[in-house]
Amino acid sequence: MESLLNTAFPKKVLEQYSGQIHDYILPKGLGEFVTRRNVSLKTVPEVRLQEVFTGEIWKKLDSLGLRQFDWQNSKVLDVACGGGFLSYHLLKRAHAAELTLNDISPTAIEEAKKLLGTADKTKMNFYLGDILNSTLPPESFDMIIGNSFMHHFYDVPKAVREFQRLLKPGGIFVTLHEPTPAAVAYESGNILLVALYALRGKKYIESIRKMVPGSKILLVEAGLKSLLPLGVSALADEYFYAGDNFLVRRACDSIFKGLGEAVSLLAALKYLKKIPADFYFKISGRYFLNENYDGQKWDLQKFNILGTGKLMSTRLYGFPAKMTLLWQMALLLSLPLMFFNRSLEYTMRLFIPQKSVHYLTGKIGIAGFVASNGMVIDE
User: Fold this and answer.
1) Residue 76 predicted with pLDDT over 60
2) Are the C-beta atoms of residues 238 and 218 closer than 8 Å to each other?
3) Angle, vertex CA 222, rays to CA 219 and CA 227, nearest 5
4) To 5 degrees, how large is the angle CA 34–CA 86–CA 37?
5) Which phi and psi (to 5°) does residue 295 adopt?
6) Mind listing the pLDDT tens digit for each residue in 117-154?
7) What CATH number should be reported for the domain holding residue 306?
8) Concatenated DSSP letters for 72-108?
9) How many CB atoms lie within 10 A of CB 321?
């Protein structure tokens, strides 16, 4: 049950309470420490306002059958609301009869008020306080929903009991997006942890230099900021910021998985020509090469992929220069299919002829974090 311990805690805290956590309940001293930290958390203005977040949240709600939920006649509680991220995107597509936002941090409530203002058709309430010891009346809500918040509670069973008390009979409880390693670092407020997370960017590039001596690196960035932390962009032979390209931005902010990656790679083709090579590798930026990488496994005359007959991993693959056009066409032909919610892993594989493929087997030497859930992979 030690997974409740946030890895952003100081080492002495982790050591002090190791082995003392049972049934997702923190010892009193640590629980009080967590509460104080949450109260004093300085919430900054919300910047994740792009349509891609709206679409991703509603895609998850749709998968739970909540598109048919009677929002307009329901009272909804957004628990541990932070700066109002979840409510902002809920209100893009639905309006509850009454929406209550709760957080234990005063700055979070203030930021949420600034972001949401007055929402048409929705009565808005703000409740500042510890939801585990709330003064809200029983059976107040038809739905309790929250985003990346369960890890903040010092007593998870108590939280669940309180949600049961606050929900009307037949009410719904929804929890979304428990945190990735990046969120743990940034939410900690620990400058050292944030710096160490950012330094991983250097680790990724250095791992390529080490495992593929003499390689040239084109770094493509399609995020909201062109300036990468700690001079990471300067470590590449060529750096291309695609985030301000109109088509790239629209693709990255869309709800379609892999569309941003495909359009970004197509936009980067002109930079690829600046680095002529006999063979090209594509590796996603959150991953690095480890000691399991073996160049002898790769067929330098074929399109190398890790995957099954119908899918391929887009974390790492490679192809000879003579197949650059094939790669480009596979990306281009994938675009319309992704508007029908086909993943890039599926669509690319459709357009690479079987005779051109070399399947990589066993460990190919790539490790890192999956963006959507923070899961560690080692392939």
Assistant:
1) yes
2) yes
3) 70
4) 15
5) -60, -20
6) 766 667 899 999 999 999 999 999 999 999 988 878 88
7) 3.90.550
8) GG-EEEEET-TTTHHHHHHTTT---SEEEEEES-HHH
9) 13
Cα separation, 36 vs 217, whole angstroms: 45
Q: 77 pairs with which residues across the strands?
A: 100, 144
Alpha-carbon distance of 155 to 117, in angstroms, equals 32
Give just the sign of the alpha carbon dihedral 295, 296, 299, 304: negative
Each residue's pLDDT tens digit, 234-278:
888 888 888 888 998 888 877 787 899 999 999 999 888 888 899
Tell me: pLDDT of 115 over 80.
Answer: yes
For residue 36, what are the domain limits? 2-40
Give the CATH number for residue 172: 3.40.50.150
- CA atoms of 168 and 248, how far apart (whole Å): 45
Going by pLDDT thresholds of 50, 70 and 90, the confidence category of residue 22 is: low
